[in-house]
Design a protein that fits this description.
It is a single chain. This protein has seven helices and seven strands. It has a five-stranded mixed beta sheet with strand order 4-3-7-6-5. Helix 4 runs parallel beside helix 7. The longest helix is centred in the middle third of the chain and has 43 residues. The N terminus is likely disordered.
Length: about 240
């Protein structure tokens, strides 16, 4: 009859119900068994004390005639867990301190950039921020041609930003690849880079803000690019104060 659903028509539902009932029965059986075991141990308190193999398996040992304590294995596990907890807490604290320090340095870097007097001074300040505030090898501003490039800025050929970041990429962290050329004579020593795309003036000209680290893991592809992207926006807006001649 339409609308009538029988168990035979829903084998999957029937199997689920059967499985649930079986699990409930097993749980009741285990609870009943534990009550029996618990009652037995209360009536025979020496059963565990006299079974040295069981004590070893449980990580327990007997200090006195009527005292059962945690044995060396159990204490070692507790100590190891506490050590891991302490190490993790220290790691989190170190990360928090590093983040706070980076945030403070970023605020100071923004002030440094905003105090630039011209394009050449802006490029110098980008490099100083990289070296003095963040402990990096170098920081550069690169601008695509055709068109003039301010003193102190690096020259990118046509579509140079796309060659470094991809056609639509806004930032990239990781291996230097073709970005080594941005850092001149230091290029061969660069282990990793952080790059961010910029668009300066109107009509906009593509540009790149680049930072170099000596270590291969100084910048990695799984790092967030928020900081370098933020500094790129500040550099971008600061550079627009003056026309490129």
């Amino acid at each position: 009859m339409k609308g009538l659903l029988t168990v035979s028509e829903t084998p999957k539902a029937s199997a689920n119900v059967t499985g649930t009932l079986r699990e409930a029965e097993q749980a009741r059986a285990l609870a009943k068994d534990w009550k029996v075991v618990s009652a037995f141990l209360r009536e025979h308190p020496d059963f565990i004390r006299d079974d040295s193999d069981l004590l070893d398996d449980l990580g327990l040992w007997i200090r006195a005639a009527n005292v059962v304590e945690f044995g060396p294995a159990a204490l070692a596990r507790l100590s190891a867990a506490k050590t891991r907890e302490k190490a993790e807490r220290r790691r989190l604290e170190a990360t928090a301190r590093a983040n706070f320090a980076a945030q403070a340095q970023t605020h100071a870097a923004v002030v440094d950039l905003l105090e630039a007097r011209n394009h050449a001074d802006l490029a110098r300040r980008v490099n100083d921020i990289a070296c003095l505030r963040f402990g990096l090898m170098a920081g550069v501003v690169a601008l695509e041609t055709p068109g003039s490039v301010p003193a102190g800025w690096r020259i990118l050929g046509p579509d140079g930003a796309a060659a470094l970041l991809g056609p639509t990429g806004l930032a990239r962290m990781g291996a230097p690849e073709q970005a080594r050329g941005l850092f001149g004579e230091l290029g061969s020593e660069v282990g990793s880079v952080a790059l961010a795309r910029m668009a300066i003036w109107e009509p906009s000209r593509p540009a790149v803000l680049a930072f170099a680290a000596a270590e291969p893991d100084g910048f990695t592809h799984d790092m967030g690019a928020e900081l370098v992207a933020f500094l790129a926006r500040v550099t971008e807006r600061t550079a627009e104060r003056w026309p490129v001649l």
